[in-house]
Design a protein that fits this description.
With 192 residues, this protein is an all-alpha fold. Helix 2 runs antiparallel to helix 8, helix 4 packs across helix 8 and helix 5 runs antiparallel to helix 6.
């Protein structure tokens, strides 16, 4: 899937070629253009989520359905908006790389969520290991290394109650369109 939209070419003709030669005015323009174009973050996240519909890797559901189910379960359990967003995007990194998808997904959502949501998504794979690592001869208690972290309970709820259960093709899963307003709202402004 290629991005076919034109490359933005509205750079100022007197823009810098090296950062160490830039001016405050040039950075003000860049900051303004970045804020103006913030909506593309939601567009790209939606595009990456949609691309997960083509990835199943042996699961009974594709990865988009899995992400939607996880977010649906989180929403129905009363999770807050940032956690629902995290649940929706927790495997978005699989569009790039499966082995380190948790870290990729977490970094993508980091500017838009509080730290405990970021940490839960970043570390969810070690928590998931409880449910299947024994099939690979890997210790199933890797989550225990995080037991004193403030986000431990959130990650445990996420992985045990929603993520590891979200592979049911018969589950009443909410569609991506349901979550689109949430994606747009949460990514409208980064938390620096």
């Amino acid at each position: 899937m290629a991005i076919t939209e034109p490359i933005e070419t509205d750079a100022s003709p007197d823009s810098f070629r090296r950062m160490d030669e830039s001016t405050a005015e040039q950075w003000a323009l860049i900051g303004d253009r970045t804020r103006t174009n913030q909506g593309r973050v939601a567009d790209r996240m939606i595009m990456l989520l949609e691309s997960l519909a083509h990835i199943s890797d042996g699961f009974i559901t594709d990865q988009l359905t899995h992400c939607l189910q996880t977010a649906t379960m989180a929403e129905r359990a009363g999770a807050d908006d940032e956690m629902i967003f995290g649940a929706l995007c927790h495997d978005i990194g699989k569009a790039i790389s499966v082995p380190n998808h948790g870290a990729i997904s977490a970094e993508m959502i980091k500017p838009y969520v509080r730290d405990d949501v970021y940490q839960a998504i970043r570390n969810h794979q070690d928590f998931q290991g409880k449910h299947y690592y024994h099939h690979f001869g890997v210790p199933t208690d890797l989550r225990d290394q995080f037991k004193d972290e403030s986000w431990f309970a959130l990650c445990e709820e996420f992985t045990d109650d929603w993520d590891q259960q979200a592979f049911d093709p018969d589950y009443d899963t909410l569609p991506l369109e349901h979550f689109e307003p949430l994606i747009r709202e949460i990514t409208a402004a980064a938390k620096f």
